[in-house]
Amino acid sequence: MTAAAKSLDNPIPPNSQLAQGHLLGIEGLNPLEIAYLLDKAEGYVDHNRQVDKKLDLLKGRTQINLFYENSTRTRASFELAGKRMGADVINMAVEGSSIKKGETLIDTAMTLNAMQPDILVVRHDQSGAVNLLAQKVDGAVINGGDGSHEHPTQALLDALTIRRRKGTLAGLTVAICGDIAHSRVARSNIHLLNIMGARVRLIGPPTLVPKSFERMGLEVHHDMRKGLKNVDIVMMLRLQMERMQGSYVPSTNEYFHFWGLDYEKLSAAKPDALIMHPGPMNRGVEIATDVADDIDRSAIREQVEMGVAVRMACLEVLCDQRQPR
Question: Exposed, middle or buried, 276 (CB in 10 Å: 0-12/13-18/19+)?
Fold first, then answer.
């Protein structure tokens, strides 16, 4: 039995979204719930480095991955996580489905519910769509990213990466840099880091850092060098051109000059500052290639590894919450 499969004290309150068998966002979770998921995932990191990675904890369970948006890392990671846990995993191809022919979200939910899946992993381009599906199906629902709202498992894998490197989240200063306005990754990370006692700074051009974040009491900078001063973690974000209507930045070259991470800007951070990026990276736009590939300071590849472990933990916990009592 792996460390992740051992019983831990269950800190999940009855009114929690986790207790209902869903993971729709980080907002609303408490520190104990987050730590519980991270502790579960910690055991799966070591398990996934073994030759035999197959478990039977979800044997007989069915997991459907329903992705309305293209994804490489998230969908592959959830697929691998489900298969390693022993679940039967189905990837629904939206492009060739009735969804593409005009089927409504509610009709899709009813159709999927009739198939009696145990777990539904959903990525959707509209904020709130995953929450709506969760109200219409009987199985567990995991938010794989909805619009610019949340991406909870990304924040959890980022947190696990940081905790393994730094030993804690509490007391760290984390700079989230770039396209804050369109980033569900930023929102989930802001919630998680605040809950776990870290200090969050937001850095980016005024057009990409909404005023609402300043009203939330978050520290906002528009100058990379000032914003990165003495930070522990530098979390870069992808410039999401596909979500932009209108001109947010003059050009990608100018964006990199002012807000792209290179060693000159990074020198303002602590000497051991950790470099992160959720991917996919636009090299030479958000981050310089030599910085992204720095084997001593970049944790970008480690984030991908942590993603599988975190998603295995989430699948286990949510299915466990739906076990017959």
Answer: buried
Q: Which two tokens stand for residue 235?
A: 């979390």
Dihedral of alpha carbons 247, 252, 258, 263, sign = positive
Length of the chain measured in residues? 325
Residue 30's identity, in one-letter code, is N
Q: Are 276 and 161 in contact (CB under 8 A)?
A: yes
pTM of this structure = 0.93
Looking at residue 101, what DSSP letter applies? T
Distance of CA 29 to the CA centre of its chain: 14
Query: What is the CB-side half-sphere exposure of residue 168 using CA atoms within 13 A?
Result: 8
Helix axes 31-48, 300-321, angle to 10 degrees: 110
Q: Is beta strand 173-177 parallel, antiparallel or unpaired with respect to 199-203?
A: parallel
Per run of 10 residues, the mean pLDDT along the chain (length 325 residues) is 47 84 94 96 96 96 92 94 97 68 80 93 93 92 95 98 98 97 95 97 94 86 97 94 65 92 98 96 95 97 97 95 64
Separation of CA 156 from chain center:
6
Q: For residue 5, give both structure tokens.
A: 């499969």
Q: How far apart are alpha carbons 104 and 108 in whole angstroms? A: 6
Q: What is the DSSP string of 277-320?
A: --S---BTTTB-HHHHT-TTTB-HHHHHHHHHHHHHHHHHHHHH
DSSP letters, 202-253, are: EES-GGGS-HHHHHTT-EEES-HHHHTTT-SEEEE----GGG--S-SSS-HH
DSSP codes joined into one string, 170-214: TT-EEEEES--TT-HHHHHHHHHHHHTT-EEEEES-GGGS-HHHH
Tokens 């990191």 sit at which residue? 45
